[in-house]
Amino acid sequence: MPFTTKRRFAFTLAAFGIVTMLATASSAFASGANFIATGHDLDYHCSVAFETEVEQECKYLKIAVDKVRNGSTLPILALDQGNHNAFPGVVELPEALKNAGYTGVGEVVTVDPANATELNETAFVNGKGEPLYSAIITASDETCGGCDDNEEGENNINARAADFKAFFNAGGGILALSGAFRFETYYNFVPLKVGATAVSPPFTVTPEGEALGITSEEANCCATHNSFDYPPPEPFVTLEKDNAEKAETIAAFNVKITEQGFSTITTKLSGEGKEGEKITVESGTAVTDAANLSGEHAASATGTVEYKVYSDPECKTLVAEAGTVSVSGEAVPSSNAETLAPGTYYWQASYSGDELNKAAVSGCGEEVETVEGPKCSHVAGNGHWGPRGGPEGGNLGDNLSTELNAHQELQTTGPNDEFHMHLTHLASASCVAIAGGLEFSGTGSAKFDHQNGYTASFAFAVTGGHTFYTLIIEKEGTVVYALIAQQLRRDGTEHIS
Q: Are residues 187 and 328 in the same domain?
């Protein structure tokens, strides 16, 4: 029942034997982070519920929090806007964390996600990109029947999805509690890629859940409000299932967030002294790709990684096979160096898997290499078109720059002296790479047969060892002369640089 009030019960922590157990080891940030999402409103049942519920759910909460903290002793960030309905003035998540044993000075930092200014001013990582918290936990949705967060706060949380990605990929853990009746939007701050759905108790703890210490009593102690589609996609595992064979609690361990979702393989391009998922390099630059594996058994990973390059973001049109390398642990050898023509390319790495590590493929469109064509800004030379030199053919002379305030020169005489054009002012110009060469183009004011009031548009295309000249003369919008891609006889006399 949405928005129903649950009873609050006073309790004594000592009765449950819940003590502070602070980890002392540092989190292994480089190898990925841990994520857990559950339909249980552990924050409610560990703070303001019946005594027996508090006992079981505080144990469950501690298991989940310790797992996502992954050994780090950095503070926990609790995103909880407080209860303004059933229990005014109560902030359930930090209260539940205290009851679960997180009582160190400054160990829990609480931020109200409904306060957009406060939330947006809360950095998740420092200036070096290192996490400021061991874990971020989102309080359950109010539709659980007494929980704290609502659409306002959840929308603000979801708006910081990119910051959650940066935090998680730096090694910070995430625990997402119950989305309850707003399960369709509650989890949108991470690329979950698994649908949340209505719940159907009772619950069965899976072997993966039992390995963490979750018990059937903890899973079934209390009212619960949403589940997830089963089976969840790789690399997720299911920690418990509901009566309808849906996943009640899901987790992904030692993984990273990519544009395609949670993954056990991440990649990085390198070239021209640059590194990253997306790089731009000049033509003629050799670029390599390097994969990194994560996961519980990544340190002992074997098998192979195959690198490929595509011309489309769906990875359907293969441009280059960049090599297959042998895997021995998390850090994978780089691909072959590929020198590609100007354009945009999409790299992809595929891991074969082994007995302990499942196969994985990096998301197409995540790694983008943009190769810029040769840069140019100037054209100069002379040219002739027609059967031979002299008045039977057309002639031109030019010295032009994309720097418009420079001295500019372009003159053209038509065959048999049928016209004469003289550029008087260059208004715009560009120089770009084209297939097999370069093109300088521009437009400006001109004299035509010694008369003002004309506009000239022109282009020099030098490609395949040949030069092609285009000239269009207009007066008040009417074309009076057009020469389209005329090949010049004096090849090599026009130079674009």
A: no
In this structure, the dihedral spanned by the alpha carbons of residues 48, 50, 56 and 61, taken in order and rounded to 10 degrees, is: -10
Q: What's the confidence (pLDDT) of residue 496?
A: 87
Instruction: State which H helix or E strand residue 57 sits in.
Output: helix 51-69
Pairing type for strands 420-434 and 237-241 reads unpaired
Is residue 240 a part of any domain in this protein? Answer: yes
Domain that holds residue 473: 378-496
State whether 411 and 361 are in the same domain: no
3-state secondary structure of 225: coil
For 48-80, write each residue's pLDDT tens digit: 888 888 999 999 999 999 999 999 999 999 999
User: For the whole model, what pTM was predicted?
Assistant: 0.65
| Assigned token pair, 272 | 């021209």
Question: What is the C-alpha to C-alpha distance for residues 186 and 468, in angstroms, rounded to an integer?
Answer: 59
Q: Amino acid identity, residue 392?
A: E
Residue 5 domain-assigned (yes or no): no
Domain with residue 315: its CATH number is 2.60.40.3930
- Rounded mean pLDDT of 471-496? 88
**Paired tokens of 185:** 């939007």
**Radius of gyration from C-alpha coordinates of the chain:** 33
On the question of pLDDT at 13 being above 50, the answer is: no
Q: How many CA atoms lie within 13 A of 127 on its CB side?
A: 0
pLDDT tens by residue, 386-433: 766 556 778 899 999 999 999 999 999 988 888 999 999 999 999 988
Q: Is 254 exposed, middle or buried (0-12, 13-18, 19+ CB in 10 A)?
A: buried
Question: Maximum CA pair distance of the chain?
Answer: 108
Q: Same structural domain for residues 26 and 154?
A: yes
| Residue 85 DSSP one-character state | S
CB 232 within 8 A of CB 250: yes
Number of domains present in the structure of the chain: 3
User: Same domain, yes or no, for 125 and 217?
Assistant: yes
Does any domain span residue 360? yes
Give the count of beta carbons closer than 10 Å to the beta carbon of residue 99.
Answer: 23
> Which pair of structure tokens corresponds to residue 280?
């731009």
